[in-house]
Amino acid sequence: MGRRKARSGQKPRTGPPVDVDLVIAREREARDRCASKRTFDTEAEARSIIAMHRAYYGETQIPYQCDFCRQWHLATQRPPEGR
Predict the structure, then answer these.
(1) Residue 46 phi/psi, 5° resolution?
(2) pTM for the whole thing?
(3) Residue range of the domain that includes 38
(4) In a domain, 65, yes or no
(5) What are phi and psi of 64, to 5 degrees?
(6) Beta-bridge partner residues of 63
(7) SS3 letters for the chain?
(8) What phi and psi values does residue 51 have, to the nearest 5 degrees?
């Protein structure tokens, strides 16, 4: 199999080959993790739920925007090491 030529002035791709099976497995894991969590349309909505949980249950959580679905999820905030 010969090397492909670069398109119009682009350098040919170099580096390690992409493990397609690994990429697919990571995407599947991300989708499964995302599907198991509550989603919020905005950060403000997620923060309001956090405030309610903190008042009732004493939980400490933080909102984050999911790289997979681009909506907001809640993560449990763990205390720093050594405490």
Answers:
(1) -65, -40
(2) 0.62
(3) 34-83
(4) yes
(5) -145, 150
(6) 74
(7) CCCCCCCCCCCCCCCCCCCHHHHHHHHHHHHHHHHCCCCECCHHHHHHHHHHHHHHHCCCEEEEECCCCCCEEEEECCCCCCC
(8) -60, -40
